[in-house]
Fold these 4 entries.
Entry 1:
Amino acid sequence: MKVLRRVKEVPLDNRLAALAEAAALAEGRLDQAAVEQARGVAARAAARRGLSVGHTVVALAGATGSGKSSLFNAVSGTSLAGVGVTRPTTSAAQAAMWDPEGSGPLLDWLEVPRRHSVEAADAALGGLVLLDLPDHDSIEVAHRLEVDRLVAVVDLLVWVLDPQKYADAAVHERYLRGLRRHRDVMVVVLNQVDRLAPAAVDRCLRDLRRLLDEDGLAGVPVIATSVPRGTGIAELRAELARRNADHRVWADRLAADARRAADLLAAASQGPAGTAGTAGTATATGGVPVAEVAVDPAGLRRRAEEAGDALGGLPAERLTAALAEAAGVPLVVAAVAKAHRHRSIAATGWPVTRWLRRFRPDPLRRLHLGVPPGGRHLVAAEPGGPSALPPPGRQALPGAQPAPAQPAAPGQSPPPVLPGPDGPGAGPAHPAASGQNPSGRAAAAHGAADETRSDQTRSASGTSAGGGATPDAPGGRTAVPATSRTSPSASPATRTSPGVPGGRPVPERTSLPPATAVQRSRVDTAIRDVGSAAASGLPEPWAAAVRHAARSAQGEVSDRLDRAVATTTVGAGRRPHWWRLAGAAQWLLFAAMVAGALWLTALFVLDYLRLPEPPTPTLGVVPWPTVLLAGGAAAGLLLALLCRLAAAVGAARRAGRARRALTAGVAEVGRELVIEPVRDELDRTGRFAELVTQART
């Protein structure tokens, strides 16, 4: 036997809170009309709950000539509403109140100035507020707007239809069909049945029930009434008394509003498919289309979670590979290997020829990535330090926008100003964005706060930044050329910041060549592939948001890649211990060779001067001076060759470590600027689906 479990209903407070949060998450992503509808429901719910909950507001709504005013008088037992043949008869809403105490603020909120007190013959009607509304199909626009406004906020709706217009599309398409979630707070009255024969009344009621079922209003009470005959008046009054008895109709109405607004958000989350086939279907609260298709927030959440789990797959690997190539990682890795071999030869090569290495530049220092061979690190990354400037002429990736600088927090001093090529005050120590080199390549603009500090510093020092300002920066701000940020007394790759204890070098920029057009295109394609892969299977509004999130930080990619390369420590400056031993051995062999050469020279001079030759020791039959000269030279050359082989092995190992370290740094850039925004958007999508499900339950 199949066990049916009853779904636990979410409390109204939680439902409304979920709706408000879902609307906030949908802002800028889904149809704005649906978002505003949800916000309006949350706002109206907060206002209604702050007013009298001991009163139930019931509205009689209907078309012209349906007999609303007559029914209003009959139910209230008064003649307050004017009745006549001139249309429209009712021009403004009026209220009949049973037990009016405390209802004033509620009616003020409803903007119903015409109020009348009615003595309650039935105690169950105590607290009932009955409204007579204008005609919803009135020729007066103000009347129709009044009806739309009140239908959206009253607690209980009584739709008064007549035998001639009960099937009118104006009421079914504009109101009833859009209020399927409100069937628990709705009553339908077929008025003026005295104009029909008894048999025709039954046929009319059956046809009306069929139409209501098609509108999704199955189970809504349908009462046949006739004011002249008094038919159904007592039944209608009893129905109103029953609904009013527990004074909870207002909560049912708010719950229905929340469910319907959640339906609209769920339909909007499906994109065009969510509102397909609903053209012309409007609601009573602003004409927002109601979805006719089945929407599945739980499925949306599941797809978002699956997409988030798959983010670390092939698209992310391709993104890392494209970023590494654009960042110049292969070039840096090759430079690390060459620099290791270069420094090894300089430290362990044959002393006779090693000095020639001084005329060859260090491969890493040529890229402004290295430190002197005796240094400890390739570059010293300063935790929390300033961003590195991009290299001269480094072009931004396609679609890149400059990241605005963050101004200094109140009470904090601006960053220290370092000397530039034209004197002190050429630029701040913490540049916010890339500049422009003298060749005219695109520059990223500094934030307004950094510009102000730089201008003030330049004014105080009486000098200006080299190269002048560039008027073509985005946003109409002035871009400062990158050449004005380099200190002539510091290495182009690092500089000593006066604000850093110990004067540790802070990376400024590299001299890697700019990414080529092909590399930039590959990065752009890889970023788009990540967004497309994550958006696969999601409805178009959320898929578009995910794709946009993948590209949201694209303007920072170029600068962050350069900083990642500049701040990654690969240990290329560390000297292996065997270099010192091999170097010492080379000098000993060189000393032996020199000693042998001097010894032979002395013997040659003595022989030339025909002086007595002192006894010369031998190694076998070879004199020791010759052994020292030839042996020292041969051993030195052999040791240099062996050291070169060892350096090649070490260079390969260091290149591998550098590749892994640089790839990890580049992957971190991709994770922070591409993967994490996409993951956040997917989390937002899943959270939205969860909240919509909660609001609909």
Note: Confidence is low (pLDDT under 50) at residues 1-7, 276-294, 372-507.
Entry 2:
Amino acid sequence: MPFGERRWPLGGEAGDEVDVQTTADVEVCERWIRDFRESGRDCVGLDIEWKANTVKGQRPEPVATLQLATETSALVLQVLYFRPGECAGLRDLLADETVLKLGVGIKGDLLKLLKDCNLHCAGGLDLSKHFKSTLGLRIKEEIGLKRLAKFVLGFDLDKPKMVSRSDWSTSSLDEAQIKYAALDAVVACKIFQRLRSCDDFARSAISLRTNYYLRKSFASRKLKQQGWSKRLLVFGCVFLLIWSPSLVLAGFMTPNQVQRDVVCAFWGLCSLLKTVQLWGTEMCKYDKPLSSYVKPDAQELFQGVLTGTALTGLFYLALWFFGFGTIAPSRVGGGAGVLRAAGLGILSGFTKELLFRGVVQKELERDLKPDGKAALVLGLIFASAHLSPHGFVGLALLSLCLSEGKKAFGGSLSYSIGLHSSLVATTMLGSSAYVQTYPAPVWLVGSSGQSPLFLEGALGIALLSVLRLGLQNKKRRKKRRAKKKR
């Protein structure tokens, strides 16, 4: 059924539900408007949607849906499938100056209704202007509905771009479209009613919340204008600010050094996740920052794990083949040793990739074009951060491989996390199980030859170079396939 009646909870306010009717039937429209008139209300939330243009300079599509709403009820009219001019109740309601039509940028919506549907509208009230005048805010910029919902109602209104730019001309709107359309009009009505009914104390609370979010938004805009080094410095300061209390609390909680280290490490992980969440929300406008940075994909993660395991396996296989050493599995420490290595590998791979390939690389790419330049600078930062002079070249090359992996898999960090995690875990296991039978050249395996290190010698660097070439080739093949599809 393309049309019907549904009920949804309004996000952010438990138990607050909205009855939504989707229709192209004149009788249903007349009935909803009659109920609205009988309720004695003097305002209605109003919004419109139309199919987004896909070609630059294309003539705007006509209005596809018209939404009318109170705080608890919404009507989504699919005006492409009936003649709104034939609905006398709708014409009278829109032309009635005594009934306020609420929305952000409402003037443009009312003009488009007149142009596309020949519906004369009166009584429009722009909520952005009304909000600023009510609170005495002296700012020129328009405050959108999403921010008004945050300031006045205190909850996040979900407005995904993939829904807003979807095909609104279809007769069978999906659930996401109907919910998106209805809640916009409902929230507009709720914002107006909250501003109308709040006392001085509530108005002061709204003003404080608004000033806080506006100052934070202003600060993030100013920060975006700074260079990447200053932005990353601020990111580091925010992380340290969140993490530093653990240094004091750990000392009070336990006298044991190991336990203190565990507390600080766990707090550090939580601090990093929180900092990334704040950064993604403010600087990148992500609704779900962690998911947006990582773009999780189980298959790509598995491919990364296989690649890292294969690289380490080839490294130790070459050492065995040339008679430098062998692997003694009994030295790993059984299942506990494997679990310890796997846990440390996952922790190291996830946190470092989220930080370096997620946050740092994105900030570098804002300023450094082309992307290859950003990847090169990131490689130097990544290698320097590990404080390992002997492994500097290998670490920088590993970073380039991880960045290539991100590009080759469409910006997802899943492959890079899998590759990084498995390299850390299998290298730990290999170092524990390796038994030297003949000293290997330091230039070949790094260290002193007693315990070969994957990233310090020519052998590991050669394997990483081959991997990078393979990832670059994969990226080129992917681009060619995309061009053929066009």
Note: The mean pLDDT is 89.
Entry 3:
Amino acid sequence: MSTSYTFRVLDADGSVFGKGCFTYDGPPGDVDIAHLLGGADGSRGPKLTAFWYHDSIVGTLSLKNLLSFNFTQGEQASSRFAINVWNVPESTHGLTAGTASPAQLGVASAHRGNGGELSCKGRKLEFPKLAEATTVVEEGETVIPTVDLVVVIDASGSMRDEADTLSKVVGTAIEATKTKCPSNLRTTYLGIEGTFSKTVFTTTVRNYLTQTAKVDASLIRGRTAAQVTADASKEDAARTIEDISTHFDWRPGAVRNIFFLGDEPLEGGLSLTPEGQDQEDIEAANRAIQVATQTGTRVHMYMGTGKYSSDAAKHERVRKAIEGEYARVARDTSGQFFASQDSLNAFEAMLEKVICGSKTDPRVTTTEFCCCQEYVEQRGDTAVPQ
């Protein structure tokens, strides 16, 4: 293997005046090299295979111009560096400098070329540094996810008083989030077997799936008022989650999200059990979770302020039981649960995480040190002769 080092000649003010580089056969570490022109007696150590030096006075000088060179580095000997490089036999351009150490600059005792004799300008020789690979870190690209969000509301009468407020709060949060970052969000508002005028919920789930998504009506699991009571059909939340997860016209590659707004148990509303929900509600939630998970659909749940009993203790018991199922559906589908209108403040933060672009990992490129000549002849960092 070979090892390269770079060094600099500094002007009196500390700015870079010239640059040099050399390469020898062997690994980095302890080394003792003495090079005399033509390999004359007195040369020792690893073979010097390349040497280049450039400044605006001498131009570019190479190994064939190197009269003498000494480089020692290691714990067993004093580290030192000195060079004597001239365009022999003319000797009109050249530099003699040394002896530099890691702690002390060497002196440029002879310096001649363009502009004549410029030896007494206070220029100094730095001790060489290992020419290491160049690492470039490029910022990751912004990836804007395609996100489909279906906002679904229980269209029963108990949600009427909240529908208008929720329509505004959810819509405002969505618009606010879209202003914060690049996004590719499509939002659809649907009601279960019903709609609410003067809100964004003006299309039913059934109409959207059969008319817009062109789904065969026989495939829809949500029930109609002819199959159950009118309110019960509007409270088939779990079945609706199944239907939207399976049949909605999701865009290819879209991140799928359902945001359900309701206040009743998930299978046809309140049951006559003391807890307000029964085993059918739990099993319906299980099926909804399974289908949503299989289709890669994240379900967020909002529980409104329903009235379950005139008895305060029973009301609270029923509310907690229903809330537990709402939270379970959200948790088990990697969604988020919101317990009241106040907690919708967190909806905007959640939505921002979902729709905002994320950056890919930075791209790190490492380029091994290549060429001494190219290094010393790079423009833009050496001075004009004074």
Note: Helices lie at 160-178, 205-212, 230-234, 237-247, 279-294, 312-332, 345-355, 372-376.
Entry 4:
Amino acid sequence: MSLSIGISLSVDSGFPVSNQLELVTPSSVSTQNIKKVTTEISYISATTKQNNRTYQSLVNEQSTNTNLKSITDINVEQISGKQSHEIDYMLTLISDDVYIRTTMGIGDYVRLSDSELLKAGIEPANLRDETTGFQAGIYRNGDLYIVAFVGTNDLKDILTNLRQGFGFDEAQYHQAVDLARTARITFGENLLFTGHSLGGGLAATAALSVGKPAVIFNSAGVSDNMMKNLGFSPQEGRVIAENGLIRHYVVEHDLLDVLQQKLPVSQPIGHKILLKYNDDLEESGTGFPNNLIRGLKAHSLEKVLELLTIYKPWSSLNDEQQEESLVMLNESDLSVSA
């Protein structure tokens, strides 16, 4: 009998992990007839283990401060608005975790399995569509539910970014709205959304469609046409998002953010919190190669997590202090020299 396990990993990209278990056992009749059983298994990935350790350290740190509300006892009304909250770090981990379909969640935030989704009345197929590239996951912690959307991870998603950016109707955005409305009916008021890159654009659209908060990271834009489809004028939709419905963390030099500012495409929505990039020595130069490398690193969730760990913006008492702790920059500081 031979047991072979094939695992395909994309390190530090946040992309999904393919995991297959292939069991090969000789036939009782003839060794020439090989019987193969292939099944998809759930496992705890190295990323999940690391995220669990990071989450637990945050819980331990928080528990020493009696002035802070437990991050396992959260009501969305208490964490909505422009001000950063501790849960924003947790949502970064979830936005990373959702890329890998077979994970079971992070810490106290359990990812609903297909059987749990069916029990709740949600068809698992509605959370992943290979035709459009749409993928999402739903997490639960007590009575809090989080819908997390997968970001750009293949050519279909890149095309969605481009087409949506130029104002075309895109199926993934409508699927995000449908899922948001279903989740709102199924799980009630204690619901929020999160996502990174394209997933951030989907989460922002979902939040706007049901009036529940979202926290997003290095997000893709939301088109004027999409907001009109939701019943808002573009200006009205952006004001609602900016006034606290959506918090948008952006890393300085993020390549997607730079491109969106320079091109005539749809812009992200929400209250923008800019995290100052800490240059590595080899990236300190100027010019296209260094700027490209820096821009790609800045876009990654790994860099978002690193900077949130450094700045801890949720420890600020008000927006003014938060701006000082994050070293907020002017939009002009984001320019990339060729």
Note: The two ends are 58 Å apart (CA to CA).
